[in-house]
Amino acid sequence: MSAELILCPHCGKENLPQATRCVYCGEDLEELFRIEGVEDNTALQDEPGISTADLVEALRQADSQKDEKTGAADRNGQNEAADSGGETESEPPAGEDEQTPEWLARIRKRAQQEEDAAGELTRKGSSLDTARSEDHQGRVDEEFASWIARIRENARRENLLTPKPAADSAESEGGVPEWLRKVRELQPEAEEEEPLAEEPAPEEAEPKEGQNDAAEQVRAEEGEPNKETSPDEDTGESESAPEEALETEPEPEPVREHEEAAEEAQTPAETPEAEESAPAPKTPELEPVLEELGLAAASAAVELEEKPASSAELGADLLLLRRQKENAQILMNLIGEEGRGLPPAKTQRVSGRGWYRFILGIFLLLVLAAVLVFVPEAKPGQVENPAPAAALKEALGRLASGDKVLVVLEYQAADSAELEQITAPVLKALQTRGVEMQFLTTHPNGLWLADALMRKADIPAHETGFLAGGKLGVLAAALNPDGESALVPAGVEKLENYALILLLEDSQMDIQNWIEQAGPWLSADKIGVLASSQNAALLLPYYDAGQLAGFAAGTTEGRVLAQALDRTDLPSAPSRAFQAGLLVMIAVILLGVLSKVEADSGARRPKEPEA
Amino acid sequence: MKKTVPVLVAAAAALFILAALFLGEPLAGWLGIVLNWAVITASAALLVAIAALILTHLRNVLGGKRGFLFSLILISAFLASFIGALVLGVDNGEYLRWVAAVQLPLESSLLGLAALVMTAAALQIFRNRGWSLLTISFGISALVFLVIALGLLQALNIPLLTAVLNYLQRLPLIGARGLLIGIGLGALLMGLRVVLGLERPWGE
Asked: N or C: which end of chain A has fewer CB within 10 A?
C-alpha cells in the first residue's frame, strides 16, 4: 500500500493518498482527494449503490486487515504478512538500518499506520460530506449512525457477558434454536417481509462441542473457508453454525451485509489464525466498491468472514444490542428534550386520603388555638432565670444614683417589639434609681427607634447620638481618651467612665463588634446585653469567658428580669405572638413528619401485591 | 506598581493596628488619627457606591429596560430620604416618624416572609431528604427547643424539670463555641493573608 502513497510537493515526505494536507508540514496537497487506484473520484458520485458508509467501511476494513496481518506475523515470528499481500508496509523499510530488528520495524510501522488511520478516517468523512447530495443525506446519516452503533457494540463484545453453556440453551421447543428465536425477536420485520427460505434442521444448528476443535483445526490447515464447512461438523466454539443459520435467515439484504462487514472489521483480531488460513468470501455489495477504490488487490487477503459465535454468546450479544438501541433512543429523547421546560409534575392523588390531612390540619389548629386561649401565660414569679440573666440583674442592682449608663441601640425595626418589651422595664427601673443614661446608636434607624423606646419605657426623652463608622466607630469610641474624637458624638465620654454599657441587640455581628473592638479597652463586667431570643446561644460563650457582665435574651427572660427589678412588665402581646409563632412552627414540623410517614406508607402499598 | 502599593498600604495599616492593640496607650492617639482616615475613606467609598447604584438604576429607567419601574421606585425613595434629611435634618421628629412609618412595616413583612420560608423548609425537609441522621436530629432538636422557648414547661416550676431544662439550654453553647472558634480562625487567617499580600479584597 505504501507504493501508492503520495509525496508531498513541499516537504517530499510520504502521505496517504486520501490526505488533503501533509501530515508532516501541514501544506495542502495537490490532489485534494484521491482514492487509491481511482483516477477520477466522480465515479463515486455516479455510482448510486455506493454510500458513504460503504466507503468508510471499506477503508476501515483495509486498515483492519493490515493490522491483523502485522499482528499475526508478530505472533508467529514469521514474515507471512510480506508474502501474502506483498504490501511494503509489512516489510522492513529499505532505507532503514539493517541492524534494526524486524519486529521493532514492524511495531514502528504499525504505530505510524494507526496514527494515520485515525486522521485518515476523519479526513475521508469530512471530504465526502461535501460530496453528499441532499437527497441521500438523511439516508446516509442514518446508515452511518447504525454502523457506528454496531461497531461500538462489537468492540465491547469481549468485555461483556461471559459465554453461557450452549448445551442447555442451544435448542428449545419445536426444534428451533434459542439463538434463532432471539434473532427472530429482534428482526420481526424481516420475518414478515420474507418467509423463511430454509429452516435449519435442529441437528444442523446444534453445536457439538467435541467435534469443534478438530474440525476447526483441519479447516485451518486446509485453508478451507468456513462457509463451506458442513454445519454438522461445526461446533459451538467454532461458531460457524450460527453463521450458517444466519445465512438461511432472510434479512434485508443491504443492511445485513453491511452489518456483517462491520462485524468483520472488528473481529479479525480475535481469530487471526483462522482467518489467515481461511480466506473469506467477499460480500457482493462491497466488491464493486473495493474495486472502485483500488482495494481489490489488497482485499484479496481480506477476510470478510464474520467471526463465528456460539449461540449463547450470539444471543447475549443480540440482547445487548437491543438494550443499546433502547439506551440510544433514551439518550436521543433526552437530547431532544434539552432546553425545554419541565413538564408539570403529575402527582397521583390517592382518593380517600384527603380527609386524613384535613382532619390532621384542623386538629393542629385547634390545639394551637386552645393553647393560646386557655393555657395561662407563665407567671414570671414561677420562672427561674438562667445564670446570665441573673448576673445581669445583679449588675443592674449594683448601679446607684449618679452612675452613668450608656445605652446602645443596635436593633432593626422588625425586632423593635421584642426588644422594647425586654428593655422598657429595665430603663424605667434605672430612671427610678436616678441612674444617668446616655443613648447611642450605630444604626441610622436607631434614631427614631430610640424615640419609640423612650416613650414605651415612659422616661424623659434623651438625645440619641449617632456613632458612624460601624466597627471602626466602636473602636474609635473605645479609644476616645479625652472625649474629643471627631468620630464620637458630642457628649459621649470615654467608655471606661461608664458604669455599664447596656447593649440592645438583635444581631450577633454587632455584639461581636462591641466585645472585640471595645472589650479590650474596657475593664471586665462593663458590658451587659439585652438581646432577642435567637442570640442567646451565641452569647453564652462570651458570658462564660467573662467578657459580659450578663445578658437576658427573649421576652421570657426579660419579664423575669423586670420582675426582679420590681417592675411590672409590659402588656404581653408580643409574648403571646411569639408563643403563637413557636406553636405554628411546632405544628408545621409535626405535619412534615406525618406527611413523610404517609408518603412512605403510600410508596410501600403498591409493592405489597408484588411481594 | 498598581499591585504593590495597595498591598503595602494594607500591610502597614494592619501592622500598625496590631501594634496599637498590643502596646495600648502609647499608640492610642495615633490610632485615633488612623481611624479617622479610615472612616473618612470608607465614607467616601460609600458615597461612590451610592452614586454608582443610582446611576445604574437611572440608566435602567432612561433605557426603558425590563423592570425599570423598580428602578424608578428606588430612585424616588432615595431622593425623598436624601432631600428630607438635608432639608429637615436627621434629628427632626417628623422626618424620623415618616421614615419609621415606612421602614417598620417593610422590615416586619420581610421578617415574616423569612419565617414563612423557614416554615415551608421545615415542612419539606423530611419529604425531600427522607429519613436520615441529619433530618431526624434536626426535627428532634427543633421540637425540643421550640417547646422550651414556649416557656410553659418553666412555668410548671418542677425542680427536676427545671434542672433538665437548664441543662438543655446550655447545649447550644457547644455549637456556638465551635462556631465562634471557626469564625475567629477564619478571620485570623484572612487577616494574615491580607497582611502578607496573598489576599487582595480590593481586587486586582
From this structure: C
Distance CA A22, CA A31 (A): 11
Cβ A348 vs Cβ A531: under 8 Å: no
The 3 state secondary structure assigned to A595-611 is HHHHHHHHHHCCHHHHC
- Find the angle CA(A241)-CA(A243)-CA(A246) to the nearest 5 degrees: 115
Domain with CATH 3.40.50.10160 in chain A: 380-571
| SS3 call for A398 | coil
Query: What is the percent of chain B with per-residue pLDDT over 90, rounded to a whole number?
Result: 16
Of B42, B139, B177, the CB nearest to A541: B177
Q: Which helix or strand (DSSP H or E) is residue A482 part of?
A: none
Cβ separation A414–B111 shorter than 8 A: yes
Cell triple for B62: 432612561
Given a contact cutoff of 8 angstroms between Cβ atoms, the answer to whether A266 and A309 are in contact is no
Report the distance separating Cα B19 and Cα B26, nearest Å: 10
Tell me whether residues B93 and A582 touch, CB distance under 8 A: no
Using a CB cutoff of 8 Å and minimum separation of 24, what contacts does B54-59 make? Answer: B54/B78
Asked if the Cβ–Cβ distance from A378 to B127 is below 8 Å, we say no
The separation between CA A185 and the C-alpha centre of its own chain, rounded to angstroms, equals: 35
What pLDDT, in 10s, does the model give residues B13-71? 888 888 888 887 778 778 888 888 888 888 899 899 999 999 999 999 998 888 889 99
* CA A37 – CA A583 distance, rounded (Å): 89
Closest approach of chain A CAs to the CA of B182, in angstroms? Answer: 13
* Nearest chain B residue to A519, by CA: B21
C-alpha count within 13 angstroms, C-beta hemisphere, residue A443 = 18
Q: What is the dihedral of CA A438, A473, A535, A571, to 10 degrees?
A: 30
Q: Does A370 touch chain B (CB under 8 A)?
A: no
- State the residue for C-alpha cell 497582611: B195
Which CATH superfamily is A380-571 part of?
A: MTH777-like (3.40.50.10160)
Identity of the amino acid at A333: N
Pairwise CA distance, residues B116 & B176, whole Å: 25
Q: Report chain A's mean pLDDT, rounded to a whole number.
A: 67
Instruction: Please report where in the chains the cell 423569612 appears, as a residue.
Output: B114
Say how far apart CA B178 and CA A541 lie, in whole Å.
10
SS3 call for A514: helix
What is the distance between the alpha carbons of residues A231 and A223, in angstroms, rounded to a whole number? 17
Contacting residues for A419 by C-beta, under 8 A, at least 6 apart? A411, A453, A504, A506, A530, A532
Long-range contact list for A38-42, CB < 8 A, 24+ apart? A38/A292, A38/A293, A38/A294
The residue that leads in pLDDT, B137 or A227, is: B137
User: What tens digit of pLDDT does each residue of A533-579 get?
Assistant: 888 888 888 888 888 889 988 887 887 888 777 766 655 556 677 77
3-class DSSP state of A411: coil
> The whole model's pTM is what?
0.52
Inter-chain CB proximity A520 and B176 less than 8 Å:
no
Are A445 and B99 spatial neighbours (Cβ–Cβ below 8 Å)? yes
